[in-house]
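Hi Y.,

Following your request, here is the sequence exactly as I used it, all 171 residues.
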Amino acid sequence: MDTKYKVIVLVTAMAGFLSLTKFAVGMASGSMAVMSSGLDSLLDTFISGMNFFAIKKASMPPDKTHQYGHGKIENFSALVESFIITSAGVVILYNAIYRFVKNIPVRYTMLDLPIMIFSLIFSFFVTYVLKRASKKTGSMALSADAAHYASDVYTNSGAILAIILTYLTGY
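Below is the corresponding structure, written out as C-alpha cells. Let me know if you'd prefer a different format.
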C-alpha cells in the first residue's frame, strides 16, 4: 500500500474514533465547545475519507478523457475541503450565538477537559504525520488535510481555555 493511502486511512480512522468520543461527551455535558469540536472531528473524518478517494483517483493513469492524468482531482478535493470547513464554522458560530443569547446553561462533566486535551495531542500528532507525508509524496490533498488539522490545534486550545474559564468562574 502506498504511503499516501496508509496515512489517509490511519488519519480517517483516528478522526472517526475521536469524533464519536467527543460527541458522546459533548452530548452528556451540553458543552458547545466539546460538541463543536465533535462536529469538527466528524468533518475531519468525512474530509479525510474524501481525500482518500481523491488520492486514489489521482493515481490512475491517463486515459482517453484525461490525457494528462487525474492529478488535478487532489487540488479540487482541497478546494472542496475549504468550502466545507467554512460552512461548518458558520454553523458553529450561529449555534454559539444562539446558546449565548438564549442563556442555555452548560453542564460540564469531568470528561470534557480530558477529551479536549487528548484531542489537542491528537491534532499535533496528525498534523505532523500529514505534513511529513505530504512533503514526501507531494500530495496537495495531504497538504490541505495537514493545514486543516493544524487549525484544529487552535480550536482545541480555545475549547480547553473555555472549559477552564468556566470551571474557574462558573460562567
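Helices lie at 3-29, 32-58, 72-101, 112-137, 140-169.

Thanks again,
Q.
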